[in-house]
Amino acid sequence: MTRYLLSRFAQLAVVVFLVTSIAFFLIHVAPGDPFADAVANPNVSEAVRARWREAYGLDKPLPEQFVRYVTSVARGDLGWSFSKQRPVKAVLSDALPNTLLLMSIALFASFAVGIGLAVAQALKPGSLTDRVIGGISLFLFSVPEFLLALVLLVLFTYKFQRFPIGGMTDLDYPSFTPIRRLADIARHTVLPAITLTLLFSAVVARYQRAALQDVLPLDFVKTARAKGLPERVIVRHHALRNALLPTISLFGLAFPMLLTGAVFVEKVFSWPGMGSIIVGSIDSRDYPLLMSAIIIGSVLVAVGSLLADLLYLAADPRLRDAR
Amino acid sequence: MLPTRRTVARRLIANRSAIAAMALLLAIIIPCAGAPLFVSHDPLSQPDPVKLKYQPPSRISPFGTDELSRDVFSRVLYGGRTSLSIALVATLLSITLGTAYGAVAGFAGGVVESVMMRILDALMSIPRLLLLIAVFATWDELQVKWFILIIGFTGWYGLSRIVRGQVLAMKGEEFVMSARALGAGPARILLRHVLPNVLTPVIVAAALGVGRVILLEAGLSYLGVGLHPPDPSWGNIIQDGTDKIYAIASIWWISFFPGMALVLTVMAFNSLGDALREALEPRGIRS
Amino acid sequence: MRQLAPLTALLLIALACEGDKQSASSENAAAAPGGTVVISSGGEPDVLFPPLSATTTGQQITDLVYDHLADLGTSLNTVGDEGFTPHLAKSWTWSPDSLSIQFHLDPRAKWHDGLPVRASDVAFTYAIYTDSATASPRAPLVASVDSVTAPDSLTAVFWFSKRSPTQFFEATDPMVILPEHALQGIRGQALRTAPLARAPIGSGRFRFVNWTAGASVEIAADTANYRGRPYLDRVVWRIAPDPNTTFTRLIGGEADVLEDPSAAELTELATHRDIRATLLSGLDYNFIQFNLHDPASDSRPHPIFADKSVRRALTMAVDRAGAVQSVYDSLAAVAIGPTVRAYPTTDTTLREISYSPDGARRLLDSLGWRVSGADSIRRRNGRPLEFTLTVPGSSRNRVNMAVIIQNQLKQVGAKMNIDKVEFAAFIDRETRHKFDAMMGGWHVEASPAGIRQTWSSAGAHAGGSNYGSYTNPTFDAQADSALSAMTLPERRNLFKHAYQTIIDDAPAIWLAEPKNSVAIHRRIRTPALRPDAWWSSVAEWWVAPAERITRDSIGLRR
């Protein structure tokens, strides 16, 4: 087990190195320098710009910059964000928990809803329920994330003003009591979390239904049916337990999908998480921030995939022995 | 093993949603591909940006006009042409890469396979959207061909895993071992024996992949790193309406029609992918 | 029906403005303390440290938390000290030779942490702004100031090496006064991470309360302020990068102020009776700039644009008013020249090149550019009248304008190709002069001195901002004498000559002067807003007591 974990952590290091190299390559291939906006202001002198370049180390030779970059990332120093005028690490450590909040709510809700829907479908295959749920899943699976988010935004903050208009906290949040603060964040979380959940539960439902379809014709199910057990029990207890296994591997897929979805959802709802940081850094051409956010995103995905694999190992005794 | 072509066709025809999906796709693809034949308006022309902007659907402009008095119908058709060709070419590239990578890895085995799989794992850890954002945000004057290439180069990971799995399973099969015994080289075995048997996941991946790329292109345009206007693509047409959603009740047509076109197309491709999977490898329960 | 909507909007806005002006004066007596104003902001401040802040939001906040020595008036007069309001400096004395100005600080002025404001703070501020280690982009704006001394604790003296009409403006506007005691020992790049950079301590009528990263910044009334407390209790900037959210917050009642609503948003606002949208004179102008040099080699003249008459002909071919109207509707005026109407030195009676496609055709014919071939493009000695316009793809308005003009030029036989490039590449082409024509624009500061860098020979070399390399010694001389004029009427007259010269030379087709707009909730009463800084008068804003809503009644905490 330890050897397995060690090799996975080594893999994590490889991932970080790979992403960091790609990031470095992209930043330095990009045309112009990040201070282009300053160039449009005729009052900024060349001397000032030279100063900035020096401060960011942009005047050293490329290989030296690469080494500096990789070693600093390894140390945890992700550089300076000039659009936020703070160290990148500080910006991301403020943003990451907010995204994790959304993602974890959506993760659990999606699995619960998705599996529930798939079970409902499998109870009476070919029935109206099956087809309606299947149709809705297909629709949610095929709609662009931002469109769904926009529709929900218009409906529930503009048309029917039931929810706060974007953001994570209320105007007077700093003066709230801790309980009120929690309630405030909860209110703001509803719409973005629902959007992410709708998107991912469609994936889970489709996947789970296919898995159930594989399991239901198997012998042990036929035996259970012959025993006279109600269909409900058969599907939920016997079939599901076996069909859940492939779904656990979906856990690994969940991280990149939810992170991707979060980029759009956070933009639409102005949720101050990693997605907003990424979108903002595109507009402000803050490449150090953008690249670091992507590095962190990749680490998150790699960690998620590791967790998923561990979960899979824990769930399937057959694999455990082989290890 | 693969069912015969006739069986597949029979199963597809029996599947009602597959028929609906294919019909829908034809109804969308044909007008888009043959856009110049179907529309009389130039999608880029702005007849009168002051008086004719935001006109509701009418006989001259069945989908209405947009902010610059451009005809939405012709933009949806030409945009579809762009988006669909991007999606088809990029997906073709992805499945080729994925199949090749997976087959080589599975067949080679040993250290080569290990290394290839490790690289694959590392690549899979980088979320596709984020990587594309990083590349396109820093890319000056992005041209369509590079757009297609880069999207294609990032969509093959899942398929290569599956293909490798299939190849590994095949390696132990009798007919492969006998082919080897007869002195057939690995390339020949790959092409004549192994590949035809991995067709199922490849075909399904193709259908689902096209839908994914269409969605990806739309998302990238929304974030501002997709194809640049004024040449229309579904992504950048939809993006036009996304910063004035409160006005959507009064100018709903500028986002509704391209949005519908996109969603219906992706649904059709996904549905087709599902149906193909069913037809090629039916599961226990038919629906 | 659609086309009436913007006109109706304008009408409503105009009526609203009129009504408010009258009620404001009679109601001013009713101004009472209290109220919370929420500004719906699309951008977060970068750092709340004035020498280094590069965002508008940052500037808005620091302008209210910190004080200038004296404040620029709404007329934007930068000649002499007319119209300036005393802030930190209660009064000032000019030396007889005008080579120094003595500012007498208000003895009651205190920093928000209780310590008194002293002249040493002023000298310290000057040192920080001009320190090359700080690398402040505002340093060149105080370049005319030689030094600042503090003979006693309440007198700060600004020394100049020579007289200039704008020396008072340069002494007071670029810098807000910083607390020396809060920045002890912190210099250079360390200033960015100093506590003061994220929690400013000023002497202004508002004091900083908190900054929740990514969400909001709050400032509150400084009740013991030497100039008296502002009417409002609090001002909060609520940040949301997405334009749908910032707008919906305004109409949904979660915010009170939105700056620069788009044309679509203004149309929508016309249907919301509780929001009042005000249009202000803008400080931007855009244009199509011709490269008078050959892009291939900076020393050779441009094969088409070196000829002034060709440029004038092309200008005649463009229906500037029509193009601006199409793209901006009523949200921009047609640009007069390399200046904006907000400047008191801009005379609007200048002689423009009128729109006349026939005139353009005749002129081009007479110059030897004749229509030939099936494509009806003009040619002279085999060279077609064809060029490429470089446009920054990020600006939709500029792209749309380019497309309209492309069409108009086609009508007179000129072929303009549009090359949309990404912003960084656009800047690159500009600075290296690698373009035929480019769709450029300038945002101007309160002082018109920028014209030297942008349109005179001084700016025509590498590193300057006169990207088209327009050189006319007459214009240079006229601009210089205008900038040296010591009185406003003199300056205005001299600028009139200078602007007329450059308009006649047509180094650019002057396009639009976009207006600024700001949408404010009706219950908030404001004085006349400064075109370049609508927020500068927030300390004078008040909420009509009869119209208060929930958040107005929260009152001051702590």
Quaternary state of this entry equals heterotrimer
Largest interface: A-C, 55 and 58 residues
Helix content of chain B: 55-70%
Distance from N terminus to C terminus of chain B (CA atoms, Å) equals 22 Å
Q: Mean pLDDT of chain C, as a whole number?
A: 88
Q: Quote the beta fraction of chain C.
A: 15-25%
Q: What's the story with the biggest beta sheet of chain C?
A: 7 strands, mixed
- The number of helical segments of chain B is 13
Tertiary shape of chain C: globular
**Class by SSE composition of chain B:** mainly alpha
Continuous helix count of chain C: 15
Question: Rg of chain B to the nearest angstrom?
Answer: 22 Å
Q: Please identify the structural class of chain C as seen in this structure.
A: alpha+beta
Q: What does the radius of gyration of chain C come to? A: 25 Å
How many beta strands in the DSSP annotation of chain C? 27
If strands are numbered along the chain, what order do they take across the biggest sheet of chain C? 8-9-10-1-11-25-12
Keywords:
heterotrimer, A: 323 residues, mainly alpha, two-stranded antiparallel sheet, 78% helix, globular, C: 558 residues, alpha+beta, seven-stranded mixed sheet, five-stranded mixed sheet, 15 helices, disordered N terminus
Question: How does this model look, in words?
Answer:
The complex is a heterotrimer of chains A (323), B (287) and C (558). By secondary structure, chain A is an all-alpha fold. In chain A, 78% of the residues lie in helices and 1% in strands. In chain A, 44% of the residues are buried. The model of chain A is unreliable at 36-43 (pLDDT under 50). Chain B is mostly helical and 287 residues long. Helices cover 68% and strands 0% of the residues of chain B. Chain B has 13 helices and no strands. The longest helix of chain C has 24 residues, at 4-27. Chain C is an alpha+beta fold and 558 residues long.
